[in-house]
Design a protein that fits this description.
Elements lengths: L1 H29 L19 E11 L4 E6 L10 E7 L13 E7 L7 E7 L1
The structure holds copper (II) ion (CU).
Copper (II) ion binds next to strand 3.
Length: 122
């Protein structure tokens, strides 16, 4: 009887710590659009890019920036959301209008805004 009780207590403790770990992870994921990008460290010669599907919300030519309502980025554990992206080149914003659906590739480095390196409308 004592053994069973101990096991049950242990199981409950394990379950609670798992839940806590999940909550912490969710909080970290949600904060990625607030300048706390958790980009992987990688060499300058091999810049990892990630695919992105979304819809244009706003175009800011002066600041080389586009706000996108994007789908989840599973590889980075990003949920779907609306957020600004930098663009690597002003040409990427040419002719872009709010409401357009786009596909893009972007890079993300720790301490920097995520940057779109290629983009086309669908
Ligand atoms: Cu985002």
């Amino acid at each position: 009887m004592t053994f069973i009780k101990t096991t049950a207590t242990r199981l409950i403790t394990l379950t609670l710590s798992s839940l806590l770990a999940i909550s912490v992870q969710a909080a970290e994921t949600m904060s990625h659009d607030m300048g706390q990008m958790q980009g992987m460290t990688m060499s300058a010669t091999q810049q990892k890019t990630y695919p992105l599907n979304g819809r244009v919300v706003a175009v800011d030519n002066a600041n080389l920036q586009v706000t996108l309502e994007h789908d989840a980025v599973t590889e980075l554990q990003w949920p779907a959301m609306t957020m600004p992206f930098k663009v690597a080149d002003a040409k990427l914003l040419e002719g872009l209008q709010p409401g357009q659906s786009i596909m893009a590739m972007f890079t993300t480095n720790e301490g920097e805004a995520p940057t779109i390196v290629s983009l086309h409308t669908m």
